[in-house]
C-alpha cells in the first residue's frame, strides 16, 4: 500500500450535498471553477450529470469551460464563464454555446457585434456591481445598454454577495440595487446566501463550497464531508525540554515531548502552521511546517497507526478556518500539489 | 496574446546561479524536489545537465526520483531521495541506482538485506539528527550500525542546519555533533549554509532556493531572478470613501480610490493578502485576495499597461517574505496551479 499523502474524494457525498441544497432553493447550479475547488472538475461534473439533475456549471475562464464542455456536451448543460472573456476567446466560446458572464461594456459590445456577424443572437449573462467591488457592470451602464442586451438576450443578471455569511445590512442594499432591474431571470446567491432569507436566493443559486462540504460559519446545515486528506507518520522521536524543533528555532519544547514527522508540507499545498492533525483518535498540535513535512506533538498519543487525517470529518474546513483566521479551508484543496495522490470513491 | 496569468522561468539564470554558487563552494548539487520548487523539475534538470557540471540532484520521494532519472539517465548523474524510502519502494530505487538518504535503523537494515539478496553492495547516504529535530538518524544509532554501513558503503553523511540564515550558536553545535563522525564524505549545507563560515559547507552543498533566485535574508549575493509571475488587470473601477472592497467588508476605502482587479487568486496558489504588486512602474498595494482575483489600490498609478508583476525582479521573494512574516516565497512557486501558464525562456 502506498504511503503517499492522499486526497480521497467521495463523489456520492457531492451529489448528496447538491440534492440537499436543491431541496432548499428554487434552482441551483454547481460552481466547478479552479478544478472544482481542487476536487477534480471532470469527475465532479460527470458525477453530477449522471446522478443528479444539475445542468448549470460555473467556471472562471475559457480553459475551464472547455474542460467542462468536453464532459458535458452530450447532456443539456449550460456552462457559464464568470470571469467574462477576452476578445480573442470569443470564437471558442461561441462555437460551444458557452455563456459568458459579462462585466463591462466592451464585452457586451464585442458579443453584440459577433451576433451580428453570425446573424444569430445568443444570450449572455451579466454580472452587476452591487457592493462587492470586484467584477460587475455599473448598473447605470446596464440600463444604458438595455436595448442592445434585449436584442442579444439576457440569460441571467447576477450579483455576488459581499457578506453572505453574515446578516450585514449590505446584503439588503445589494439586493435593493439589483432589484432595480426587473423582467430578467436572476442569480443572486452563492453557497452562503442560501442561508439568508429567501429573497436573497431567488432564481439560480451558484453552489460552490457547500457542494464540497465546506461551511465555514456557525449555522448548522447537514452537509456531508467530501474530501479526506491523509498523510503518514514517517518518523517519531523524543525531544527534550528546551530543545528546538524546525527552522529558525521556530518551536521550543517546554517539557520533554514526543514528535511525529508527517510526509506532507507547504510544498504540497498544506501551508497550515497553526492547528491540529487527527491521528489515533486524538488531535495532535502542529508545531512545525516545512516544504515537505509537518511536525506534530504526539506526546500524549498512543501511536498504533501511522495514518494522519489533515482534512476530513475530524479536521473540518471550519476548524482550519478557526485555527487560522486568514486561511480559507478551500485554499488547501485548490492548492494540493501533484505529489498528493487523488483517490475517488463513490460510497455513502 | 493570451492574458492568462503566466509564470515565466528563465533557465539560463538557473544555470547562472548554479555556476555562481559553485564558484564559492567545494562541490554542489541541485535540490529539485517539489517539481523544482515549482519551476519544473524536468526542464531544470535537463538544462543543468546540458549547460553546467551539475550532476547531483536531490528530491524527496520515489516519484520525483523516477522523473529525474528519466531525464538524466544518459548522464553520470546521482539522484538522492532525501525522504528515505518505504519497504515497497526498494526495488524501484535499486534498479535505477538511485541513492536513498536513510534516516532510521529500519531503512538501513532493509537496504542491507537487499544488498545481501542481490549479492551486491550499493552505497546509501545517511541523514544525521543534529538539531533540526526532523528526519535524522540518532548519532548513537549511526555508530552502533557503523559496521553494517561500512559494508554497504556510505555515500554521504548529511545534516540539515536549523538556523542556517543566522549566526546562531546552534550552527556550531550541529557541526560539532556531525563532526563526531570521521572518515566519511559529508553534505552539511543547503543554500543558506554556504553564506556561513567555510566549515559549514565542506563537502557537497545542496542548493535549492538560491538556484531559483530566492535569498530571503539580508546578506547580499548576486543571484539572478529566475521566475517572473504576471497576471492582467481585467477591470478598473472607482470606489468612494467609506465603501467596502471584497468579502466580509475586508477593506474600507479611507478616501475615494481607484481599484484594479487582477486575474489571479489564492486558488492559483497566490495566497498573498499583504503586500504589493508592481504595475506601470509603481507598487500597488494588495487590498483583497479571493479564489480567482487580487484587488489592487491603483489610485495614484497612471495605467497604460494591463500587465502586473506578482513575483520577479520588482516583487522579490525577500519582499514577499518581509510583507508576510509567515509566508515563504517558495510557497508561491511550489503551489502555482494549473490555470497559470508556464513559459520557459533561455536568455541572459
Automatic annotation (TrEMBL), chains A, B:
GO biological process: D-alanine biosynthetic process
Record flagged with keyword DNA damage: no
EC number, as in UniProt: 5.1.1.1
Keyword flag Isomerase: yes
Obligatory cofactor(s): pyridoxal 5'-phosphate
The protein, known as: alanine racemase
One MF annotation (Gene Ontology) recorded for this entry: pyridoxal phosphate binding
Pfam families: Ala_racemase_C (PF00842), Ala_racemase_N (PF01168)
Residues that coordinate or bind substrate: 134, 291
Keywords on record: Isomerase, Pyridoxal phosphate
Residues where N6-(pyridoxal phosphate)lysine is found: 33
Reactions accelerated catalytically: L-alanine = D-alanine
Gene, per the UniProt record: alr
Natural source organism: Candidatus Cytomitobacter indipagum
One GO CC term on file: cytosol
